[in-house]
Sequence to fold (87 residues):
Amino acid sequence: MRLKPGFVSLRPCACAACLLALCLLGGCLPKSKAWTHPREPNPRKEDRLFVEDTKFCEDKIGPQPEGAAAEAAMADCLKRLGWKPKE
Fold:
């Protein structure tokens, strides 16, 4: 049995679709965050800024607070940097 030329040309598209599905299902997309920055309209820049600001706040807070105290300190730091909790 000989394959039709149309079938062979569909294989790369099918492979690309499978890879895309695996990336989407595998968690390649950034996690949604509970904070938003009203002065940054670009979502990609906002994501990068959130990573930078989170790292800054973690370094500022240090390892001492734990549990609810750590969450409150992180929220306070992010609010000072202009972040607002999502509603």
In short: Strands lie at 35-36, 84-85.
